[in-house]
Amino acid sequence: MNTYNNLGSKDTRSGFGEALLALGKADENIVALCADLTGSLKMDAFKKEFPDRFFEAGIAEANMIGVAAGLTIGGKIPFTGTFANFSTGRVYDQIRQSVAYSNKNVKICASHAGITLGEDGASHQSLEDIGMMKMLPHMTVVSPCDFNQTRAATFAVAKHIGPVYLRFGRPKVPNFTDPDQEFVIGKAQLLLEGNDVTIIATGHLVWKALEAARLLSEQAIRAEVMNIHTIKPLDDQAILASVQKTGCVVSAEEHMRNGGLGESIAQLLVRHHPVPMEMVAVDDTFGESGKPEELLAKYGLDTPDVVHAVRMAISRK
Amino acid sequence: MAIFGSTGECYLNMSLSMLSATDLSTIASQVRRDIIRMVHGAASGHPGGSLGATDFLVALYFAIMKPDPNKFSMDGNDEDIFFLSNGHISPAWYSVLARYGYIKTAELETFRKLNSRLQGHPSPMDGVPGIRMASGSLGQGLSVALGAALSKKLNGDPRTVYCLVGDGELQEGQNWEALLFGAARGIDNIIAVVDYNRKQIDGPLDEVLSLGDLRAKLESFGWIVQEMDGNDITDILDQMSVAKQQLKKGKPVIMIMHTHMGCGVDFMLDSHEWHGVPPNSEEADRALLQLEETMGDY
User: Fold this and answer.
1) Domain B16-289, what architecture?
2) pLDDT tens digits, residue range A189-208?
3) What is the fold, at CATH topology level, of the domain defined by A10-173?
4) Within an 8 Å CB–CB cutoff, is residue A289 touching chain B?
5) ipTM above 0.90, yes or no
6) Do A101 and B123 count as a contact with CB atoms less than 8 A apart?
7) Active site residue A61
8) Across the interface, which of B125, B137, B148 has its CB nearest the CB of A70?
């Protein structure tokens, strides 16, 4: 069985910031915009190195999205940065019309996604963003799992032509994927092979899925673990191939059950290969203040929750 | 006018610099006919604002920007580019794009109909040359135009970005974010134009939600503000010429363009009732009697 080791915990947002700086050096068409959260988004290095290509929008996200859409005309590749909540719900119609419908090459980069934003509480915890963004035609939705993968994803979305939503987070979490990995948008990453259940996770919950698989292996349950770093377009083939082998599935994400990754998987399976499925996700409620790990536990997004869901799914086979 | 053929197609190989204000008025009359016929043909659309903004759009394309309609590119590098923020006046824009040579005039017949490129509100989805951004949901165009102006600056492109914004649309908060941003970043290669007809769907703008002293507001936001009569082509040409002299001075420029909703059709003039209502056949006939066919109907 493959094992994955934490190479040293890091925040995914720093992977974004590091890649953005490198992109700026490599391509003068890369520009960045931020709505008064430059430090939080780890965009300060880009700002310092390329002051002429960095645009502080102030606390005015709607205008930021519009300006970014306009910058694409003339060939710029704009990366906007703010928290996930302010990157999506706050500016949904601006994204819908000026970015998605107009099919502009804007990269909407959203930090502090999910409940692990922590102490700021529900006003800032975005648990609906994947749903909102995946519903938009033309939009690609990317949700990497650790620092290394967020870095790789940032390079990949810069190359991709078209609107992208790139989702990452605030806390330091295990960094375990290959630093030199090739990131292919839309391609699922099979982390562990197994025959008893497929655990399909995204973002911070991928590590939880690996932890769960380790615990399950001690009980002779062999879990297949798949990282879906691209929620849209979904890698239908990889998911179907795995589920056809294992016969049941558990999804895991730091997001509302409504509109999340699990919902996309369920929609695929119900049409092509219905099997027992359980979803580890937030159950139609807002979050609250607390430490990230406390919140994951309270809202049913922790390793034991994945283990429990696996047992449920297998029992229904 | 010699530059137009009998089919109504526009021949741009003739010199646009020869066009006088009278020539532009002649074109505007045909555009107004197109608007009435399009909106009547679709039995839906927005004639009032379209008629009011016609003179400006004609002057902008035929005398001010003069882009090459055969070389449309999405990036619009090294040419003046235009954004329509109040997308509901699409009939006026589509007609001008057709009469200027971007699309065939026959295509105007498809306006708002199934499988048409000429959507109720403009969209670049189907590749209509001349259109770079979707609009219709109000309040977004000025931000986009400022972004495009920044792009031109980064590219060392000396040309100008134009943006038409509705007055009722200024009730959307995003415009005021954009106004702050444009001044704070010194975006001085843009001329924004407010179509100040003082009407919106629900009634007079001052009754729905007054903009107060618009000029004072815009000036206090740090923009260079000018005014013009948007239904007087000579004044449009004169004032836009003055406005161009204000570019590259560290501040964005905005025009308060006084217009009359429904201009050119007496029973539509200055009435918000015609904001989004198409004329019936009898009304369309009455309107067309007031508008001379100058370039051949589509």
Assistant:
1) 3-Layer(aba) Sandwich (3.40)
2) 999 999 999 999 999 999 99
3) Rossmann fold (3.40.50)
4) no
5) yes
6) yes
7) yes
8) B148
